[in-house]
């Protein structure tokens, strides 16, 4: 809700809190969701390469554990991802994200909040 209202500072804090809890619970599907949320927030904050890495990591996690993106979430997700990919012009950051472990992806997401 904070994201949708444009309160990115609150959204960032809530995203971090959610990601930390989900890591403690070991819920991989929800970790992927958190990484996707972090990526969406990174785009609006101007960190498109960081977003691409997080989306790549989330995509790999979803593939590994058979947790496809819900059908109702696909159109806005695909719109955000397409816009981000068009602005960076290459696929390297996405592939970098796909290559990291889940734990490293979480650390990257949390570190991105500090930048």
Rough shape?
A: globular
Strand tally: 0
Question: Share of helix among residues?
Answer: over 70%
Strand content: under 5%
Number of helices: 6
Strand count, sense and barrel status of the largest sheet are: none
Distance between the termini: 22 Å
Computed Rg: 13 Å
Task: Produce the secondary structure layout.
Elements: H1 8-25, H2 28-44, H3 48-65, H4 74-88, H5 92-99, H6 102-112
Task: Fill in the keyword field for this structure.
single chain, 6 helices, 115 residues, mainly alpha
Provide a short characterization of the protein structure:
The protein is mostly helical. The chain is built from 6 helices and no strands. Helix 1 packs antiparallel against helix 2, helix 3 (48-65) packs across helix 5 (92-99) and helix 3 (48-65) packs antiparallel against helix 6.
Protein architecture, described:
With 115 residues, the protein is mostly helical. It has one domain (8-112). It is 76% helix and 0% strand. The chain is built from six helices and no strands. The two termini are 22 Å apart.
């Amino acid at each position: 809700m904070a994201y949708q209202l444009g309160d990115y500072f609150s959204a960032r804090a809530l995203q971090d809190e959610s990601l930390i809890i989900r890591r403690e619970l070991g819920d991989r599907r929800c970790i992927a969701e958190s990484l996707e949320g972090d990526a969406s927030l990174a785009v609006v904050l101007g960190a498109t390469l960081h977003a691409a890495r997080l989306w790549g990591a989330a995509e790999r996690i979803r593939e590994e554990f058979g947790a496809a993106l819900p059908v109702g979430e696909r159109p806005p997700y695909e719109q955000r991802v397409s816009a981000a990919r068009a602005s960076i012009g290459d696929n390297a950051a996405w592939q970098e994200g796909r290559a990291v472990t889940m734990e490293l992806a979480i650390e990257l997401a949390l570190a991105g909040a500090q930048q």
